Amino acid sequence: MVRANTVARAHESVSLSLADRERVVAELGRDPTRTEAALFENLWSEHCAYRSSRPLLAAFDSEGDRVVVGPGDDAAVIAVGGTANESDTYLTFGVESHNHPSYVDPYDGAATGVGGIVRDTMSMGAYPVALADVLYFGPFADDHPRYLLDGVVDGISDYGNAIGVPTVAGSVAFHPDYEGNPLVNVACVGLTSEDRYVTAEAQTAGNALVLVGNATGRDGLGGAAFASEDLDEDAKTEDRPAVQVGDPYAEKRLIEANEALLDEDLVVSARDLGAAGLGGASCELVAKGGLGARIDLDEVHLREEGMNATEILLSESQERMCYEARPEDIERVMAVADRFDLGVSVIGEVTEGDYICRLDGETVVTARRPTILTGPSRPGRHPTYRRRQTSRMPSRQSSPTLRRRARRGSTGSTTTRSACERSSDRARTRRFSLSTRRTRTWRCRPGRCRRGPPTRRTRAPARWHLRWRWTSQPLVRHRSQQWTA
């Protein structure tokens, strides 16, 4: 039984949107617990799920002979010196933004950004060898952008020097548009080989989940949701608890412990604890493998007493890794952690069923399909932007009357309807798309165009119009390199 006193409507304690909450209830078949609602809020945030930017990112080319691991993992893996089938030397590339935390606390925000991208590299079985950063601030003549610049640069350099990874490249720019929200992007390059690299995908039911690294505290609570929201004027005081506090010396020990675990072939899969903390790492790890998990939150080594289930799952305390290990290797994993003076806990196991978290003998999270915790199947409230370029000539088939007849099956036209016309018929979905395109259909409306509608002998003028339309089609790349639905 799910603990009764934790069952509450999500919008009473969590900023989960009404549309998202309705989908959560539909997926679970009941109201979510407070811990479940908090997990959904963080894992469905823009920072974790890329709800509005995923269609745009999908337009980039990500396949090739040298690509070993593409988008969707903690870092990309590229073969060096030949194709993926020929070379056994791999480089990993990852980039992470820490914009909001760096605005609230420039030093710790930027430093923990370095630590996060380094652990992303480690979770691919790679050793971090180089860092790079791309920074954007407000006008240099103003005091506040210079204050942010000094703190961010010190945070990046101090953390990188402490863990022994040099910053070899970067850039900085100043513009008034970044005055209220600086951009702090940190990249890391790692080195691995064919027999050492791993992925963040659980492999086998029955394997143990082992948490290695610093103890879990209350710092960084709700950091993923905070990073996806707009900054307020009082963000520096109200949102300070959402900024993590890093320990670069613990990170250095974790890097060496990770290498030792890989040397002894003790890692089946790995995931670093970053955004959404233990809940995000364990959910994503098992969901990618199509598996479930049983997590015992009582076994997590804590830094503070009296932490509840939501705090344990969503804490973003730094310098922590979650490993999948074979049951017979658990003692050796714990021995390696002890050798490098790191905390270690066996927190659960991979299963073939649900994703379940328990605390004090009571269930606080139950998900029948772990994939529902790793991001919505379609955006709930974020618009996606699509661009399409077609002929300028007006189309008889695309008139509203013929489209209505086509839906009823009464049109006599044999013309094949375009994907745009088919998608515009799906008006019962709740996904907006802003279409900016040069279109076949005459789009001018009264008051928008002075030329009036074209005649049969008149060619429609080339105009760009913005028009909201309903669609449920995913964004794909057309063979002619145009964006299309």
* Derived structural class: alpha+beta
Strand order, sheet with most strands:
8-10-7-11-9-12-13
Radius of gyration, taken over Cα atoms and rounded to an integer in Å: 25 Å
Shape: globular
Compute the number of strand runs. Answer: 18
Give the CATH topology of the largest domain.
Answer: Phosphoribosyl-aminoimidazole Synthetase, Chain A, domain 2
The percent of residues in helical segments reads 25-40%
Strand content bin: 15-25%
The DSSP helix count reads 16
Largest sheet: 7 strands, mixed
Q: How much is the average pLDDT?
A: 75
CATH class of the largest domain, named Alpha Beta
CATH superfamily assignment of the largest domain? PurM-like C-terminal domain
Q: Termini separation (Å)? A: 44 Å
What ranges have pLDDT less than 50 throughout 5 or more consecutive residues?
1-13, 223-231, 233-240, 378-405, 410-485
Question: From the 3D coordinates, which CATH architecture of the largest domain would you assign?
Answer: Alpha-Beta Complex
Q: Which SSEs are present, and which pair or pack?
A:
Blueprint: H1 10-13, H2 18-28, H3 34-43, H4 46-49, H5 54-57, E1 67-69, E2 76-80, E3 89-97, H6 99-104, H7 106-122, E4 127-137, H8 143-163, E5 167-174, E6 183-193, E7 208-213, H9 223-227, H10 235-238, H11 248-263, E8 269-272, H12 277-288, E9 292-296, H13 309-314, E10 320-325, H14 330-339, E11 343-351, E12 355-359, E13 362-367, E14 384-389, H15 400-408, H16 419-424, E15 432-438, E16 465-470, E17 476-477, E18 483-484
Parallel strand pairs: 4-5, 9-12, 14-15
Antiparallel strand pairs: 1-2, 2-3, 3-6, 4-6, 7-10, 7-11, 8-10, 9-11, 12-13, 15-16, 17-18
Helix pairs in contact: 7-8, 8-11, 11-14
